[in-house]
Amino acid sequence: MMKVNIDINEDHPEPLITIQTNEWTEELEEIIAIIKGRNRKRLFGIESDQTVLLDPREIEFVYAESRRIFACIGNRKLEIRMKLYEIESILAPYNFMRFSKSVIGNLNHIVSFELSFNGNLCVHFQSGSKEYISRKYVTPIKNRLAMGG
């Protein structure tokens, strides 16, 4: 059971949130996302000359190709007119991690992994799409998944 303690006092110059726990849980991750979400930027994708508001929870991965950035939602590919590192910071609270120099993936959409011959990890998403995780990023992703992230 989670206890909540709120101390409203004019001696506090700004809000400070402290969470004391013995383990990281999905519930805590959701709370943090909500707290950080107040000032979060929105992502817009372009599809068939229409601008579409993107729901980060639906995006499987985002990748760079030929100096353009695309978000994959199922079989749809929508262009995002931002830099990959900007998108990465917006999507981080939604359980996205860097897969390679040109790909950011949603850990919540991964179905399975397979090791490829060059040491990279091949990730299969719910839609059937697949992407590769560079060796440099394999360990941080494995650790995050092991923590329940």
From TrEMBL:
Residues 44-147 form the HTH LytTR-type domain. Pfam families: LytTR. Gene3D superfamilies: LytTr DNA-binding domain. Keywords: Cytoplasm, DNA-binding, Transcription, Transcription regulation. InterPro entries: LytR-like, LytTR_DNA-bd_dom. This is LytTR family transcriptional regulator. It comes from Gracilibacillus salinarum.
